[in-house]
Amino acid sequence: MPDIFVSLPGENKKDNLNSGGQNEVKKPNPLKQFLSAYLFMPDDVRFETQAPGESIILLLRRHWITNFVWVGTGILLIIIPVILFPAIAIAGIIPPNFPGSIFNLIILVWYLLTFSYILVNFLLWYFTVSIVTNERIVDIDFINILNKKFAATRIEKVEDVTTRRGGFVRVLFNYGDVIIQTAAKEHMFIFGDVPHPEKVVKIVNELMGKEEGAIVR
Length: 217
What we know:
The protein is an alpha+beta fold and about 220 residues long. It has six helices and eight strands.
């Protein structure tokens, strides 16, 4: 997995755009920032093609609720051996002379595959990001652990920004798709299942100069 984010000590970009620097900015919780799907002007974060003087306004991942399937599957895979294997032994399905070393090997392989499944899915969620900077729209999609798609366009090439949100779960947890139409080679950017889609649309419109007012969280 190639590096996307690297630490950049000493920068606090919030002072540039947040109420003229008059409001005190609280230091974010590092763990919360690490796992967040919606980061507004994150501290000490860079991405691999970030230009000098380019500031990250938004860093977005898919809403955490979209991880429910693989997280639930991972938990189930962890629990299955604890319940199933003793039940098989009690039922006498395994012969009494069955080598214990092979049985232990099966359990070891099972858990190695389970934790590999969990780790890969977490990395794909963590590194698949949509980024809004003061200069560009950047979309980084990891197809698998080794392959990614990178697309970017200048803010001035953005023509229209809309949001698409439907369904009870999306409304309940306040997430949806943000669709960005551009005049660039990449005609459309889709930020899929991101939190607070209306806020994202508002911020992009403000960067485009279509709305007035301070950029809000």
